[in-house]
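Suppose a colleague, Dr. K., hands you the sequence of a protein chain of 265 amino acids and asks what its three-dimensional shape might be. Before reaching for any lab equipment, you can write down a predicted structure in token form. Begin with the sequence itself:
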Amino acid sequence: MNGAILWAAAGTGFTFLMTSLGAATVFLFRGSITRRMQQGFLGFAAGVMIAASVWSLLIPAIEQAEAAGGPGWLPAAGGFVLGVGFLLALDHLMPHLHPGAAQCEGPACGWRRTTLLVSAVTLHNIPEGMAVGLSFALAAQSNEPAALATALALAAGMGIQNFPEGAAISLPLRQEGLSRTRSFVYGSLSGAVEPVFGMAVVLAAGGIQPLMPWLLAFAAGAMLYVVAEELIPEAHLGEHSHPGTLGVMAGFLAMMVLDVALGGG
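The predicted structure, expressed as tokens, is then:
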């Protein structure tokens, strides 16, 4: 169990580091990133999350359930629905603001615009941290090299897409009038929930091992909710949608190659 926590801490620590490195681009850019660049960033993140949900979460959930002698579809479908419901509830309960939007979503509040922008990114970092943490917990339970390789591939894929995601939050904050240092700190902190939720879900999975397939599918449902609700629509705002579409394709391809190549699939 301690090994699983350490691996999850390392994996989610890496994804958090990549968010921070992306947020640090605010010190390099004099102006703002172009709309097409932002579309590509968001699309790439969406593609990575779609592929990770299938190869790293749903397929292992089905295989785990079938290995235990049960129907593979039940925990995959049930956990998926619960994950969607969890993010849907957070969307309604937590005030947040998407870049480019004029009004906040969720309950009415007096939060500053910058706080609302950070909370929007923080929301979809939660399922990412859960996914990486669960993948390492599964690797520790199975004690198989292929499972560990899959977990490493997932952490690498999430880390790669977190770099542009960190930039996509710190640069708009700079445009909102914050200093470069504060924009970097807020952008970096938006990824801090990943280690927290990653290790929390490992503790839960270790205590209730039969629920692992449900938890894996839960993370997949939560991630795909973020993709469908936020990332893909935002990647296609404006006159030209090709940068967002190509970003999705590139992200999906990169995560698929990482998972299949490293996981030995």
